[in-house]
Amino acid sequence: MKKLLLLILLGCMAHTVSAQKIEPDTCQPPADYENVAVTKIFNDSLNSTFVIWVKREVKPHKHAHHTECITVLDGEAEMTLGDTTFTIKKGDMVFIPAGTVHSVKVTSKKSLKVVSTQSPHFDGSDRVFVE
Known about the structure:
Blueprint: H1 2-16, E1 36-43, E2 48-54, E3 57-63, E4 67-74, E5 76-81, E6 84-89, E7 93-96, E8 102-106, E9 112-119, E10 127-129
Antiparallel strand pairs: 1-2, 2-9, 3-8, 3-10, 4-7, 4-9, 5-6, 5-8
């Protein structure tokens, strides 16, 4: 009986856990996006992961209840994180704690392209724009 229960439990876990390999270079934005384009590449109760393209800027905002980690895949920008402003470029990673105001101004001719992982799950409701 214990073996049967263990097999059932393992079978259920196999259906709820899925692995994926994503190649961000193959992700492309819509041809006609105005400033920011977002493609969701993963989502569960613990995190949401997106590829994001920015042509010009992302206005100052904060996330009330989650952290964000971005990895720059392409382009260059000036990023403000709290009271600090710095340049981000391909290969850089930036960790943004919950409640920290942040913004981006693209400085390269090509769009900024990042992978953004937000934890816990992000539904957009805790994004607060600030002046």
